[in-house]
Amino acid sequence: MIREDLVFVGAPDFAGRLRGKAFPRAELEKRLKSGIGWTPTNVQITCFDLIAETPFGSLGDLVMLPDPAAESRVDFDDGGPADHLLLGDIRELDGSPWACCTRTLLRSAIERLKRVSGLEPFMAFEHEFHLKGAARPHGDAYSLAGFRAQSSFLGAVIAALRAGGLQPDTIMKEYGVDQYEVTVAPALGIRAADEASILREIVRSAALRHEDEASFTPLRDPAGVGNGVHIHISFRDESGRPATYDPEAEHGMATFTGAFIAGVLKYLDAIVAITAPSVVSYTRLTPHRWSAAYNNLGVQDREASVRLCPIATKDPEAIAAQYNFEYRAADAAASPHLALAAIIHAGAQGIEEGLPTPRPTQSDLSALPPEELAALGYLRLPQSLPEALDRFAGNATVTGWFPEGFAQIYCQHKRGELAFLRGKSMAAVCADYEASY
Ligand code: GLU
Ligand code: MG
């Protein structure tokens, strides 16, 4: 069959999807300069493909410019076309950044962090997903049998990640039914979010080539285990050296690390609308699901929203290099770029406010009565998407981190998503998200 090589350029959007257009590979050089045409209202296409209320209507034109630093080309060597994609920035026609370009929003958060601390974030995304068609019986959690049942697919994912320019770390059968997890090495700045977008597409593509479908939906079954996205964060100083750890400080948190985490916890109830932005996200973010339910820091606690990750070495240099904390209140309904922008702004805000290093909690916060929790300064995270959106929209500090109009457009987008689901049973809502992600 005749076939031309095509390249897809896409921008990570508010729905956590990559949307864009394809063109012949022979025109890539030209397209790197001229981009492809784009429309402002596209930002209001929800994960269910309906257009939410839009301030732009049918008006306006934009350009999506492919970024050669965010290119992935994977030839699966299966006779099918290679998966060739580039992430793009969305610009105004005069070349200036568009207010709703998620990659631009992340860059400005990273620049702010650099301004207030001299630090650059060094991050890795840990993704959970499930295979829709696997239908394996229970009993496979973390098992070799569960791994072996999909070893061809899992090996293809690792090879494809490497071919796509990522550094694969681990892959495993997770706890949930047909659930898997994949991790990659950390990357600096925007590259970490670019890799998260690319990774999701590579996993989906590898699954399709194995006649299955992968879904990163935050929750497949209300009674089941969620698919989390855990974002591991550390910092590098201006000379590129690890700067997260201080051996003299409590739990090793350097002053900026402590203030950054304190900022994230302080603004967490307002930023989850961005990091965990689906209806089903709020069933995942409940106690005893190993996700996150309160704005707490934990040390050896997989239910803390921010967790200091364990390090199995006594070598001080190795500790400094590996020291990181993970943000657990995220999922793949979020654009990796927007999620990181919100987290980094919250951390930078904590540094600007000079917040003291938080104390890790030592017990199950869900066992405490609400008054005791409040007296200790802990908040239950929002328990529904509308509540999360209200807390986001109602926090002028948080909305002020973003360009004029962003918060309103984002909330309109999410309210369009809510309208689509109105009246549906939880099982139907889960099925809708499973199909989208
Ligand atoms: N599946 C859990 C979540 O929803 C995470 C389990 C783990 O600690 O890996 O975040
Ligand atoms: Mg996991």
Biggest pleated-sheet summary: 9 strands, mixed
The kinds of small molecule bound in this structure are:
glutamic acid, magnesium ion
Helix content range of the residues, please? 25-40%
Radius of gyration, CA atoms, in whole angstroms = 21 Å
Mean pLDDT: 96
Helix and strand run: EEHEEEHEHHEEEHEEHHEEHEHHHHHH
SSE class: alpha+beta
C-alpha termini separation: 31 Å
DSSP strand content: 15-25%
Low-confidence stretches: none
Number of helices: 14
Apparent shape: globular
Number of strands: 14
Secondary-structure blueprint of this entry?
Blueprint: E1 6-12, E2 18-24, H1 28-34, E3 36-38, E4 62-74, E5 83-92, H2 102-117, E6 120-131, H3 144-149, H4 151-163, E7 168-173, E8 179-184, E9 187-188, H5 190-208, E10 214-215, E11 229-236, H6 255-275, H7 281-284, E12 297-298, E13 306-308, H8 316-322, E14 325-330, H9 336-352, H10 370-376, H11 385-393, H12 396-399, H13 406-421, H14 426-436
Parallel strand pairs: 1-5, 12-13
Antiparallel strand pairs: 1-2, 3-4, 4-5, 6-8, 6-9, 6-10, 6-11, 7-8, 11-14, 13-14
